Amino acid sequence: MATLAFLFLILSAILQVVELYRTKAAPSPGTRVESSDTVSRRKPRAKPPIASYLLLSSGILGLGFLIFRSHQIRFAALTNTFESLVFYSAFLSILLFFYRLQRRIPFLPMVQFGGTIIAIILLALASSPIAPKEALPPIPALRSYWLVLHVAFSFIGEAFFVVSFVAALGLVLSKDSSRKEVLDRITYTSIAIGYPIFTAGALIFGAVWAEKAWGRYWNWDPKETWALITWLVYTVYLHLRLIRGKKDPLTTWIAIVGFLCTLFTFFGVNYLLSGLHSYR
Amino acid sequence: MRFYQNLKSIKLAVGLLVYLTITGTLATLIPQGLDPVYYNSNYPKFVATLILETHFHRFFTSILFLAPAILFFINLTLCTVDRFWKELKKKRGPKRFGPDILHFGLILLTIGAIVSFSGRQEGYVELAVGDKVELPDGKLLKLVDFKYLVYSDGRPQDWISTVQVTEGGKTVIEKADIRVNHPLQVGGLKLYQVSHKVSTELLLQDPQDPRGKPIHLVQGDRITRGSTSLFFMAVEKKTQPAGEVRVVIHTSGPTGTRVIRAEKGDRVLDLTVQEIRPLDITGLEAVKDPGITLVFVSFIFITLGLVMTFAERLKNLSKTEKRSPKPR
């Protein structure tokens, strides 16, 4: 199932490349051309292309795989790096599908494509030797539904940060002012949605779990500290926008740094620093 | 007035957040809480001196962290009061209290953390089945049973300590399980399952009284027989036959000191080794944290604040969308 999900993602990415070239050459009906890229401010009138449905299918397959695995291990399969990566990638794929479908945030094919590439990288990492794949029931400390909430909400929040990261990268590289405005809106909106979910997951549910498991809601463990650092970076982003407005390139760079912090929190701390969270 | 304005400004908040982010990052890269020798031998002299002089090796309890954190707390409190007051007085437009509730939650969290930090008490105890220990409030905790469950591949599945709590001869808790992730609340105390080890139990029988209760000794125990003291020092694995063990006992008395290696059936002083068997020892941690309720209440406020802020932002987004031009 996970392999099929990976294939669907690859296929979706290829179709998106084709779509990106086609829309550049000739805009499809229902989309609005703004300078060098395609931007739909209200809604994509045309149905989402097959590439988006492939994203949705990949996400559903990934989640289905985790449900099947949960049945195997008789606990929610979200307790090791492999399962977390599959969940992250699956949720990101579904989010990218709904990003195409929704009408509130302006749609940019390039953002969806960037997100797809990251979903592919996440699944590729899941299949790499860094993530042991045996379906094993968790050790006692990990047998907690607070942990499941902690992991799930953290990665749902981080999936929104992926979208913000891709948009922020586009913002740095883009020279067109109207396109920049759209990219900035995507960056801000994704962080505005992801931030509360990440806060609840990474900090609040994590603290409740730690209290239940070890009797301390905060240990200054490297993973906890890095989750806090990530949260602080996004907090700085949101507050800096209040002071310096949306035209400031510094906020864009902070959005990029924020996502890099999420990566270090997940991978860097697991593999470079030791602590209570050294589960693989 | 200007000082007050600066103290409650978002600029100061952002500056402090940036400072805490950068120093917090460095603190995770420099190992915390180790002996000064470690820093002196692993870093250039100048860097090691800098780390030790600024207490960066204990960053989260150092002035480098605490002073800006306190300043941030003051800034947050003033900012929250100011913002809340402005929202309350607002006559036009919708009132947005989400950020205020979120900030109030963070203030409560900080107070809760300070209460935890200053009033937290904890103690660790190791018990074998049948052992009793007196809790700080005078109650008596007895380990009734202990189970160590493993999966088929040998990995730990659960550690279950079954305890009984009594007070002045009266039973307070007849039987309750303490498991990882499932602590037991006894009054203001929470008991956590934190460790497990297998020790060795030595049973010594008085040959003059073969029907009498044997003496139970756990590794590290000491008893006195007449004028001689007996100390259960260690356990050794025998090479032949493999898997069997013998105990190492240290005796000291008027005739001098001796180290005896004994196995089942051997004589030690006037006693006979009746049995050497493995013994499960459970490790329980008792925690009293007066700040925990405040911290959990703060979590409710933070979550509520986040949800409200999120809903208000979505509402705002819809309005912006309505105002923005429709696509051609």
Descriptive account of the structure:
A two-stranded antiparallel ribbon of chain A has the order 1-2. Chain A has helices at 2-25, 50-73, 81-101, 109-127, 145-173, 177-214, 222-244, 249-272, and strands spanning 32-34, 37-39. Chain A contains eight helices and two strands; from the N terminus they run αββααααααα. Mean pLDDT of chain A is 85; it is low at 28-38. Chain A has 280 residues and is mainly alpha-helical. Helix content of chain A is 72%, strand content 2%. With 328 residues, chain B is an alpha+beta fold. Chain B folds into three domains: 2-120 and 291-315, no CATH class; 123-198 and 283-287, no CATH class; 209-277, no CATH class. In chain B, strands 1, 6, 7, 8, 13 and 14 form a six-stranded antiparallel β-sheet that branches. In chain B, strands 2-3-4-5 form a four-stranded antiparallel β-sheet, with no helix packed on it. In chain B, strands 9-10-11-12 form a four-stranded antiparallel β-sheet, with no helix packed on it. In chain B, α3 (36-42) packs antiparallel against α4 and α6 (98-119) packs antiparallel against α7 (292-323). The model of chain B has no long low-confidence stretch (mean pLDDT 88). At the A-B interface, α6 and α7 of A face α2, β4, β7 and α7 of B.
